[in-house]
Amino acid sequence: MKRFFKLTILFLGILFLASLLLDVIYTSILSNSEKRNKVENIIHTKNKKYDVVFMGTSRANNHFVTKVFEDKGYKAFNYGISGAHLFETSLLLKLMIANNYQIKNLVLEADLSICNENRDEGTTARFMPYIHGNEIIKNHYKNEPDFYQIYYLPFYRYVKFDSKIGFREVYDVTSKKPTNTLHNKGYYPLISHKKGNMKNDISSLKVIRNKYYEEIKQICKQNNIKLTVVMTPMCKNTKGLNYFNKVHQLYPEIHNFENVVTDDKYFASCGHLNHEGALLYSQYILKTFFNE
Fold this sequence. Notes:
Layout: H1 2-30, H2 38-43, E1 49-55, H3 58-61, H4 66-70, E2 76-78, H5 86-98, E3 102-109, H6 121-127, H7 135-141, H8 147-152, H9 156-160, H10 162-165, H11 167-174, E4 200-201, H12 211-222, E5 226-231, E6 238-239, H13 242-250, E7 254-256, E8 267-269, E9 272-273, H14 275-289
Helix pairs in contact: 5-12
């Protein structure tokens, strides 16, 4: 029994040391990557100046064509992230301010994301290599139910988020595999010869007073950033479209542009415009808010 106990302690000790070593190796590699995604790009860049920044979910990433604004002389970048919620968008804006980004206008897509204050697991993974070295990230996650495991257990976060920051990502970083995340000034066009699902049902979504949206408003106010908040188009064959009116009723400053583009030929799927639709929508935003 004594021998078994000693072997168990030895095994646990080796496991802990191996986890600690792997944690150091993964963190060293991943936290020094700069151009594979928008999160790490923001963390590693400072003193940027923009006339227009776009933020939000995939409905920002795929809908705001940066070139439309650049062609009119505005320095712009699309920092929308597919899958992200306002939880991550607020954190990204905090990191921008901490890195001395100077932003004149923030165009925020906030429609379907208003209904929840949860984190997005895929986007959260991108922050994990920095959680020990960045107080802003640490503080943003400190009230999450798994914070202590993520923060204090060596290598736990890399196991939990293995699909995004596991061995494959470490290999891709070390081999300098390129991505297209930062192409087109952050805008990702949806070009497809075959349409996705052109039906949607958002009738179950409940509008809430979202604390992360409130954080974003406060950050913009404190840093003299003109905040423009919009809801973006969705195909007409959607159940529960009155959700957008409910968002506008709770937050009158959020512009309801859900029906600015309606023809199915401009949609790649029910919730996402194709490139031609995104061009129409971006031109509408430009004319509406930038006096063009």
